[in-house]
Amino acid sequence: MALLTKRRFLPLFITQFFGAFNDNLFKNALVILLTFQAAHWTTLKPGQITNLAAGIFILPFFLFSATCGQLADKYDKARLARISKVLEIAIALFATAGLYLESLAMLMTALFLLGLQSTLFGPVKYAILPQHLRDNELVPGNALVEAATFVAILLGTLAGGILAASKGGPAWISLAIFVIAVIGYAASRFIPTAAAPEPGLRLNFNPVSETWRCLGYARENSKVFLAVIGISWFWLYGSALLAQFPDFTRSVLGGKESLATLLLTVFAVGIGGGSILCGRLSREKPDLRLTLIGAIGLSVFGLDLAWTASGAAPALGQPLTVLLTEWRIWRVLLALLAIGISGGLYGVPLYAQMQRDSEPNKRARVVAANNVLNALFMVIAALSALALLHLGASIAIIFLIVALGNTAMIFIGWRMVKRM
Binning pLDDT at 50, 70 and 90, where does residue 329 land? Predict the structure, then answer.
């Protein structure tokens, strides 16, 4: 926690926290606005809007991660962080115009641009840590960043829902995203200089060839590539679970929106707590034994969640106060908390390993490769879940498949521990 008193860490920490907060506030607020006022904005169905928004936000990670990785290796990362925050302010103003004009096209464009801004900031955020932190600070630094990221996702999602449902929602959303963008920019002004590791790099703007080249950089070191695969798997695992929460809450647990919010909160708190715990348990370097323990936890508690989800469905729409008197609900909450803690233990050493063992002059492009694979794995999770549901599979079956699939990560974790 002493890192939070250091200028070489705190400004970046604040900048990335408010960036993640703003992304999720706007995305969730937009989805809720369009879902509950769909007829006023568009002829699309609410389910189509939700999937369209998710796809538009993630698309820039496929198209521009490789280019943004090159920029982060070629230029001062602190300067790029400030540029990304200026872009965020401009996007907030553009989104405000879209809300005022009630233009779906402008709002979806703003969401795409926010995804682009996040794509630019991603390689900066992770590649700058080894430049500003000592080797024995990498794990604690990553632990704090990961914990803050998931807390920001949770708080941003909740804030977006609250603002979208309030009277004068579009005005409050506009004010919030602008103020938060300004706070993020102000914090970025204090990030210390992070010299470019390869200032003579010639930029390649072909997304296909450069993405393939970045993936090649990640594959040069087997430890780095295994870390990237492991990180991407966790994003698949987490997104597969989170995407089912609304229907899981309604049709399996018989709850309302308040229970879905509670599930999300417990999961995010678990990841934050697991990340901090990992930072405290680690010593001078990434301890991949914690990754192995986390992988085992993801399978064991994932199987428990699947077993609990296979029970008979209760009456729909029960109040949260009634549901919290049932052991089944507490078992789900405990399973999600344990999955979150396991995820924190699992992911933090992998991020630190990726950063530490990447070539310094290629580190940002390795992070870009990681971001591309993260996005790809999340898309695979979404398409697989849709296919399973279309074939008549239950939510319990989806949870079961994910938990069983995670056993491959136990094997990878064991291999990485053997190479320590």
Answer: confident
pLDDT number for residue 337: 95
User: ∠ at Cα 205 (195, 26), nearest 5°?
Assistant: 80
The model's pTM is 0.82
CATH T-level assignment (fold) for domain 1-189: Growth Hormone; Chain: A; (1.20.1250)
Enumerate the H helices of 189-256 as residue ranges: 207-219, 222-247
Write out 74-113 in H/E/C secondary structure: HCCHHHHHHHHHHHHHHHHHHHHHHHHHCCHHHHHHHHHH
- The gap from C-alpha 24 to its chain's centroid, in whole angstroms, comes to 10
Contact residues for 42 (Cβ-Cβ < 8 A; gap 6+) = 34, 49, 104
DSSP state of 32: H
> Which ranges in the chain are annotated with CATH 1.20.1250.20?
1-189, 221-420
Give the CB-side neighbour count of residue 59, counting CA atoms within 13 A.
Answer: 14
User: Which CATH superfamily hosts domain 221-420?
Assistant: MFS general substrate transporter like domains (1.20.1250.20)
80, 140, 246, 339, 420 from 250: Cα distances, Å = 43, 38, 6, 21, 45
